[in-house]
């Protein structure tokens, strides 16, 4: 195996540490007592991009449509999303967050933001902006490689799911 560049070696190690730290934060906070991670991200995606069908939602989350469908069923049973027939094709369901779903997602988002603000309190706005931009670029590279099949997605804006 070829020797990785020193920068890639640092990124590989720090990615492993980041994953461990995220798991630790998850275990040590009650942030997801109200909504689990999957429900939060699904509701957050619907809030960001608007109502969409299962295929659009699955694509935007990097999930198989059957997995997204099961998550939607759980949220529907909890009264956090609604399913309605698409006007142009009644066989297709459009997923829309309910007011209660948005309220609970906003509660979790607010608490997550407060925790981040506390954790990063000593950071400058420039450092915060740099971290946000690098996370965004990293996540777009993952999306491009594993969700859209593109090789140049790290420099492209994130794609929205197919909306209604």
Brief rundown of the structure:
This protein is 62% helix and 10% strand. The chain is mainly alpha-helical and 164 residues long. It starts with 5 loop residues before the first helix and ends in a 16-residue tail after the last helix.
Task: Tell me what the structure shows.
There is one protein chain. By secondary structure, the protein is mostly helical. Helices cover 62% and strands 10% of the residues. The chain has six helices and three strands. It has helices spanning 6-28, 37-49, 54-61, 65-77, 99-119, 125-148; strands at residues 52-53, 81-86, 89-97. A three-stranded antiparallel β-sheet has the order 1-3-2. A hairpin with a 2-residue loop joins strand 2 (81-86) and strand 3 (89-97). Helix 3 (54-61) crosses helix 4 (65-77). The radius of gyration is 18 Å and the shape is globular.
